Amino acid sequence: MSPLNALALVCSLKPSPAPSSSELMARQVLDALVGRGVTGDMIRVVDHEVRPGVKTDMGDNDAWPGIRERVLDADILVLSTPTWVGHMSSVAQRVLERLNAELGETDDQGRPSMFGKVAVVAVVGNEDGAHKIVADLFQALGDTGFTIPAQGSTYWNNEAMNPKDYNDLMHTPEAVASTTATLARNAAHLALALRESPYPAS
Fold first, then answer.
1. Residue 194 main-chain phi, psi, to 5 deg
2. What 8-state DSSP symbol labels residue 51?
3. With contact defined as beta carbons under 8 Å apart, do 74 and 30 qualify?
4. CA nearest 129: which of 161, 179, 83, 80?
5. Over the stretch 31-58, which tens digit does the pLDDT of each residue have?
6. The NADPH-dependent FMN reductase-like domain covers which part of the protein (predicted)?
7. CA-based angle 72:73:78, to the nearest 5?
8. CATH code, domain with 78
9. What range defines the domain where residue 178 resides?
10. Segment 138-148 mean pLDDT
11. What is the pLDDT of residues 6-17, one digit of tens each?
12. What is the domain count for the chain?
């Protein structure tokens, strides 16, 4: 069998090449997955013209169809977002809205298009809100058809009222590194299990 592969959608509000804590954490997740035999790639969504809407292709030079093809080719989706005013970024919300179109798409056996794919989440912020964001993302991703592994999220929130960015840290906190390692281990295990034993056809 070909190696498992992962795609990270980084939902930073900052276009490249600006430094991004969300991208750093997504890279750390991908690196941990590589240690489990998973190849990986990354897209910073804000660098592309992803139009608003709930269709797979919104026309007018919409970049989502190309990103969607990359999602369809992946075994594992990594969705990484910053925390803004206690919520996921508007870019992450748009990704969820575009993924919602998959409810109307099926494979050649009648299964929703995202069945058999694993989704994990990474959240960073210099304010609280990570648990709520993870809950919202997992609800939406699960509804879309993704499978969520045990402890399939990792996050970092800075101390309240003490602004600092994740990418300004000298070292990755041990708790974050350990959580990311668990995420990668469980995600790779689940993706392999779903490849070997897919969900039943409709």
1. -70, -30
2. -
3. no
4. 83
5. 999 999 999 999 999 999 999 999 999 9
6. 7-151
7. 75
8. 3.40.50.360
9. 5-196
10. 97
11. 999 999 999 999
12. 1
